[in-house]
Amino acid sequence: MYKGTKYYKEKFYTYPAVLDDSENEKGTYTVTFPDVPGAIGEGKGISEAIASGKEGLESILIASNEPYTNSPIEKVKKDNPNKIVTYILADMEEAREITKPATVKKNTTIPRDLAIKGEKAGVNFSKLLTDALRVKLS
């Protein structure tokens, strides 16, 4: 888990999803989430569509950093007759792990006295630089 960065508090979130094959080849479903704009998936067959929808949902949730309000599934079903409406689970721990940014090594020069004091104090220089850059760039 990334410390110092705001992320979802819950491990799992579920959202109503709409699986629709009316504009595709029969059996190829587009997956949308009425409560999560931009979350979309597509797949041949229901299983593939749900897996793709899950990935799309998790990507948007990770990027937005905010949970969305859930509509009651009965309302989503009423608004989408003749379509498959089901819940799709977002596993935020798994999604964060998959989307975890890679790290790169950067050499830097600092005054000697600060290096000595930092080492004695047990400062993690990589973490300090990372945190400072996040603050500076936000």
TrEMBL record:
Family annotation (InterPro entries): HicB-like, TTHA1013/TTHA0281-like
Pfam families assigned to the protein according to its UniProt record, in alphabetical order: HicB_lk_antitox
Source organism, top-level taxon: Bacteria
All residue ranges annotated as the HicB-like antitoxin of toxin-antitoxin system domain in the record: 15-115
Protein's recorded name: HicB family protein
Gene source species: Lactobacillus bombicola
UniProt lineage: Bacteria, Bacillati, Bacillota, Bacilli, Lactobacillales
